[in-house]
Amino acid sequence: MPTPSRRLAALAGLTAALMTAGTLAASPASAAPEHAPQHPAKPGKPGKPGKPGKPGKPGKPGKPGTPGEDLPLSELVTVDAVRSHMESFDVIAEYNGGNRASGTPGYDVAALYVEDQLERAGYETYRHEFDYDHWSEHSDAVLSRTAPDEHTFEVGTDYVTLSYSRAGDVTAPAVAVNPDSTASGCSADDFAGFPAGAVAVVVRGSCAFSEKVQNAADAGASAALVVNNADEVFLGTVSELSDIPAIGVSGTAGAELLSAGEGLEVRVAVDASVETKTSYNVLAETAGGRDDNVVVVGAHLDGVEDGPAINDNASGTSFVLETAIQLAAQEETKNKVRFAFWGTEEEGLIGSTEYVASLSAQELDDIALYLNFDMIGSHNYGRFVLDGAMELPGSVPAPSGSGAISKIFSDYFAEQGQVSEPGVLSGRSDYAPFMNAGIPSGGLFSGADGVKTEEQVEWYGGTAGAQYDPYYHTPDDTMENVNWDSVAELSAAGAHGVEFLAENTLPVNGVRSFSAATPEFDRVGDTWLR
After folding, report:
1. pTM as predicted
2. Domains of the chain by start residue, with CATH
3. Strand stretches in 302-452, DSSP E
C-alpha cells in the first residue's frame, strides 16, 4: 500500500437467501478508525485491456489448498495455504536482490509464480503491459536555513521530497503564501506580488500538492515547500514532473520556518530524474459467469525496494491467489470473477490506474464492482473494512453500492463474533482508480501506520500506542512479523465476500442473477399443452 465495521447485520438474512454456503469463524494514511466499531451480536467481461485471450475453463487446483465438498469458500481458503504462497514470495525476494519491486527480477519471478499457480488451476493468464514515468531520487534532498541564522533540517524527520519533484539546487529568500488559510497556494491570487526567484512556503490543505506547486512555479518561484497541517512529516506527490523542486515539510519544522518572518532564506536541493519504463499487471478470470457483471478482485503484486514486502503486500496477493485457486474447483459462478495482480502500485497506483484507463466505456460498464486486499497480516492488526458507507470524516465520496460491499464484510465478522471497524477510504490503494471510474469498491485491510488504541487492544489484542504495522515499508516487513490470526480472519472474511458477490450483486448494483434453467409451462395463454 503506498504509504485505514461498521454496521449491524441486516444483510445476513439476504446472504443466507442468496447463498446456500454456510460460514465459519476463522491491509495511500492508514488512519485509525474514527467511528464506533461494528460489534458482533451477543451469543445465544473482461474489459479486454490489451486483447487478452479467452480464458480456459478452470479445473482442479493443485497444492497449496485442498478443496473440500460443500464447504463455503471462507473455509476452503485456509491460512496454511495463504501462508504457503507468502513463503514462496519470501523465497523469491531472498534470491532476487532482496525485494519484489516493479522492474526488478524479484517482481518478474513473482509474476511467473502467480501465473504458474493460476494455470495449474486451469486459468488462462494474460499480462496487461503499460509504459509509465518512473521517478527516482539519486541522493537525499537538502533543506537548510541560511538566514537569519544557519540550521540544517533532518531528512525523513523534518522533510521529504515530494515524488515527481524536478531536480534543482537553489538558495533564495523564502516567502509564506497565505499560510493561515486551508487553501494556501490553491489560487493564483495567493501569489499576487510574489517576488520572482523566491522559495514559496505553502501550507497543506484543500487542494492537491500539484496545484500549489504549479501555482508557485507560474508566479516565478524557484522552489516550493509544502508545510504539513500536522506535526509530523508526510509522503506526498505532485503526480507529474514539476517545474520546480518541491519538498514536503513537517508541521514542526514548518512552524519554525514560518516564525522566522522576513529575512528568512533557505537552501533547497533535489537530486532526482524521470525515465520511461514498462511494467505489467497479471490477470485471469473464470471461464463462466456473466461477462456483463464482472466482479474484479485485486491486490498489488509489487513491493517496496527495502525488503521482501511480506505484509505489504505478499499477504493480500497470496489471499487473492488462493481464492482464485479454490474458486476454480467450485461450480461455475453466476458472475464472472476477474483476478488482478497489480504492478507498480508502490510508485503511485500506476498498474491499476493504467488498467482502468485502458478500458472502453462498455468494458467499464461491464464491471459490477471491485474488491481490494492490501495488507491483511499486520503485526499489531485491526479488522478494517474499507468505508464504502462513508462513515469516517476522512473517507472520500464512494460510488453507490460501496456501502453494501462494506456491509457484506462487516456482517460476516459480526456473525463470527468478531469486532470490525471502518477503514478510511483515502485513495491510498488500488481501489482509487475504480472509484474514480464510478465503480462500487470495497475490501479489507489490517492497518499500516495508524496507531492502536487501548479499546482496540480489547478487541484484537496487541499493543496500544503502537502502529498497526510497525514494520510497514521497512526491511523488517518479513514472515516473522506477520500476525497469522489477522491473515486467518481477514482471509475468511474476504473469501466470503468474493463468494457472495460472485453469485449475486443485487445489494451493490441491482443486478440479480437468475437460474439458466428453461421453464416448462403446461399451457400457452388459455391453451393447455398437457
Report:
1. 0.80
2. 73-124+287-509 (3.40.630.10), 139-272 (3.50.30.30)
3. 335-342, 367-373, 384-386, 421-423, 441-445
